[in-house]
Amino acid sequence: MSARHGDQSHRCLDFLEQLSRYLDDEVPPARRLTIEKHLAECPCCEDVLRGLEQTVALCHDRGRPALPREVRARARQRVRDLLSGMRLDVQR
């Protein structure tokens, strides 16, 4: 944390740990308001949020890498095997 944080650096750690969930809209509304209030008061945490948003945007722009055909086939087979095992457990 930089000198700009002063006495609130211990609070910032709590908020920084939640920023990914905040961006994914996975925090309850009351917590979201608390985070937004903190972001409005803390330029350092707001900078971290902006950087995280840029990183997410770059990842989305790149798209998903194509998996090799053999990897997809092994994954499908593994899912089938797992589902078959689940069906056997349910029937017992």
Describe the SSE topology.
Layout: H1 9-16, H2 19-23, H3 29-41, H4 43-62, H5 69-91
Counted beta strands: 0
Give the overall average pLDDT. 81
Helix content: over 70%
Approximate strand percentage: under 5%
**Pairing-aware structural class of the strands and helices?**
mainly alpha
What is the count of DSSP helices, taking H or I runs of 4+ residues? 5
Terminal CA distance? 56 Å
Give unreliable regions as ranges. none
CA radius of gyration is: 21 Å
Characterization of the model:
The chain has 92 residues and is an all-alpha fold. Helices cover 75% and strands 0% of the residues. It has 5 helices and no strands. The longest helix has 23 residues, at 69-91. The protein starts with 8 loop residues before the first helix and ends with a helix. The mean pLDDT is 81.
Keywords:
92 residues; mainly alpha; 5 helices; 75% helix; 0% strand; elongated
Task: Tell me briefly what this model is.
With 92 residues, the chain is mainly α. The chain is 75% helix and 0% strand.
